[in-house]
Amino acid sequence: MPVRVFLTGAGPGDPELLTLKAWRVISAADVILHDSLVDPRIIALARKDAHCIDVGKRCGLHSATQSDINKLLVEYAQAGNIVVRLKGGDPMIFGRATEELQALQAHNIPYEVIPGITAATAAAASLGISLTQRKIARSVHFLTGHGAEDGLPAHDWVALTRAGGTLVIYMGRETVAGLAAHFIEAGMPPDMPAVAIENASLANEHVTHGTIGSLPRDVHDRGGKGPTLILVGEALENRKALKATIREAVLF
Q: How many domains does the chain have?
């Protein structure tokens, strides 16, 4: 049976970071069910007669419930449409992809997953910081800062602190104060380097450098509204050395 549904990653925002395959299915789709945060320039790649539906969730304001989205995917596919479920970043990272795939499987609807660039790698590229560095950060941990009940998830804070490496917290702007408190209580030094990056990869990207102790206040004072990623770890300290090296190279 031909594939009817494509769970597609729209990447972190910049349309130029779309994969060629994502661009191809977006421009060929009959129906696009997209997240609210997908850049309008990406949605504009759709055919003029394509049916584009915003089913996104943002800051607790739900445009559609997950069960509604599942139902739409099944109904449009069963009607013979080519359907693109367009998700920000990568659909398999904090994108509720499993629930949608299970709904399609239950109705024997063929699907394909098209990966996208996730916000963590886009942020690392923008910052000029490798998330993994020899002798400094041998692992990367992706966490969510926003639980199903709109609160801070119950992570194993002690284990994460002891693991070292680089911590990347998605959807962490609203819960950054709680995150910092838990990490410090678990033994993380308050001066551990930390960065908040809002709207990674876009022209209105904003970066806040600090420490796990200072970042909650800085993010609050910033008052941003865009999707914000929190990065924590010793690897982020090298940003200062990198900037100094670049400045010296320019001077000489």
A: 2
In the prediction, which pLDDT does 246 show? Answer: 38
Q: Are 90 and 117 in contact (CB under 8 A)?
A: yes
Query: Both 233 and 168 in a single domain?
Result: yes
Residues of the chain with pLDDT under 50: 241-252
Domain final residue, candidates 114, 147, 169: 114
Do 99 and 138 share a structural domain? Answer: no
Q: How far apart are CA 123 and CA 171, in angstroms?
A: 14
240 is an active site residue: no
The Cα-based distances of 167 to 28, 60, 61, 138, 139 in angstroms read 37, 24, 27, 11, 9
Active site residue 35: yes
Q: Which residue has the tokens 């490496």?
A: 165
Helices (DSSP H) in 107-146: which residue ranges?
119-127
CATH of the domain at 42: 3.40.1010.10
Query: Among 14, 35, 39, 90, which one carries the catalytic annotation?
Result: 35
Residue 92 lies in a domain: yes
